């Protein structure tokens, strides 16, 4: 389990480096969209009814400089105006620069359970097909119950893991403002709990209702064999490099 956390699409200053301005981000989005569409800047300018010089001016000033020009650019680039000027509201996390002077540390098992809390959204990963096939990874809302992970699903759905199957369950969090974050991985054996009274009690807990809706009668429990996690943060001033068991 290893990843690098980066910050969100919002600008920030880090270690004296100024974050990208709104205008710079508009110019960057235009460049990405042009590449995606296979369109030149000259073609964009022509189709948006402006010169290359004026296109550069719109990019550099953005904001309220010429909203109509930005709207024309958005139409040519086939994106909503809000996406061009502010970025996608539903974009995946981690859209900016990473933490300055990052430190990656392992979490103890107790720290992992503390971060998992009582309930939330995570990803169940298992091999659903034939031997050697690619694993399936599906987001589900989960509960922590007696140091295990439980969730409710459709027995015929992608998250309906067979009993006695080896599976992994991952949860993470990213702070979009600082770029810090953590990840917890639970690996173990899948069970299908059948104690009616115990399941009734679990079903009444906050977060137990399946977010996907519909009839989901199968309870799945991941009984941990191993719980591990990592946290990434900024190195503190004069902090020595990590050595020994706490180092990644």
Walk me through the structure.
It comes from Streptomyces parvulus. The chain is an alpha+beta fold and 248 residues long. The protein has 2 domains: 22-86, lambda repressor-like DNA-binding domains (434 Repressor (Amino-terminal Domain)), CATH 1.10.260.40; 102-236, Pnp Oxidase, Chain A, CATH 2.30.110. The chain is built from 7 helices and 7 strands; from the N terminus they run H-H-H-H-H-E-H-E-E-E-E-E-H-E. It has helices at 22-37, 41-47, 52-61, 67-77, 81-86, 109-116, 196-203, and strands at 102-107, 119-126, 136-144, 149-153, 166-174, 181-191, 218-234.
Summary of the model, kept short:
The protein has 248 residues and is α+β, with helices and mostly antiparallel strands. The chain has 7 helices and 7 strands; from the N terminus they run αααααβαβββββαβ. It folds into 2 domains: 22-86, Orthogonal Bundle (434 Repressor (Amino-terminal Domain)); 102-236, Electron Transport, Fmn-binding Protein, Chain A (Pnp Oxidase, Chain A, Roll).
Which secondary structure elements does this structure contain, and how are they paired or packed?
Elements: H1 22-37, H2 41-47, H3 52-61, H4 67-77, H5 81-86, E1 102-107, H6 109-116, E2 119-126, E3 136-144, E4 149-153, E5 166-174, E6 181-191, H7 196-203, E7 218-234
Antiparallel strand pairs: 1-7, 2-3, 2-5, 3-4, 4-7, 5-6, 6-7
